[in-house]
Amino acid sequence: MAQVDSGLELSWGSLFAAAAAATAVLGVRSPVNGLQARTFGIWTLLSSVIRCLCAIDIHNKTLYHITLWTFLLALGHFLSELFVYGTAAPTVGVLAPLMVASFSILGMLVGLRYLEVEPVSRQKKRN
After folding, report:
1. pTM for the predicted model, two decimal places
2. What is the largest CA-CA distance in the chain?
């Protein structure tokens, strides 16, 4: 009897099968192995969960700082791949995350000023 995969397993399996088929057809060998790809995927998932939690609880200073650090790490990672290691070309696939991280950092730094001021104004409203 065949085992039925869950939807998540099926989508992950089809995603990896499509990537394997594309590389086989193009004859391109990827310098990234499966472990590196899964680690990067988990990092992406973790940072997106942290960012969503920060959007839900924007007044949590600790979570706000952790979220800011995720953008700083992403910016540092893509800049180092582009300029230090030379493993990435300045294409849309690299420039888009650089722009998102840069604008997010700027926005969060502006928001950080209001986050510091906000609890004082909230306390005045309560009194």
Report:
1. 0.68
2. 69
Read off the pLDDT of residues 100-121 as tens digits, 9 standing for 90 and up.
Answer: 999 999 999 999 988 876 555 5
CA 98/CA 103 separation, integer angstroms: 9
Query: Nearest Cα to 65, choosing from 53, 77, 76?
Result: 53
With beta carbons less than 8 A apart as the criterion, state whether 53 and 63 touch.
yes
Q: CA-CA distances (angstroms) from residue 94 to 13, 39, 42, 75, 124? A: 26, 18, 19, 10, 46
Residue spans of the domains in the chain: they are 5-125
Nearest to 50 by CA among 36, 64, 39: 64
Q: Are 95 and 78 in contact (CB under 8 A)?
A: no
